[in-house]
Design a protein that fits this description.
By secondary structure, this protein is mostly helical. It has 1 helix and no strands.
Length: 50
């Protein structure tokens, strides 16, 4: 039973990290319209030099 609870907690933690990361990436991609501002963390998202 403890092993099952541990596996469920691990799955929940991993899925929440993936969901939060996808929200941050989607918000960053929608902010492309503001060309005048330079985001100080933009180098973290520029993987393919777009």
């Amino acid at each position: 039973m403890i092993i099952l609870v541990g596996i469920i907690c691990l799955i929940f933690m991993c899925s929440s990290i993936i969901i939060l990361a996808s929200i941050a990436i989607s918000l960053h991609s929608t902010k492309k319209s503001s060309v005048g501002k330079k985001d100080p963390y933009s180098f973290l998202f520029e993987v393919y030099d777009e």
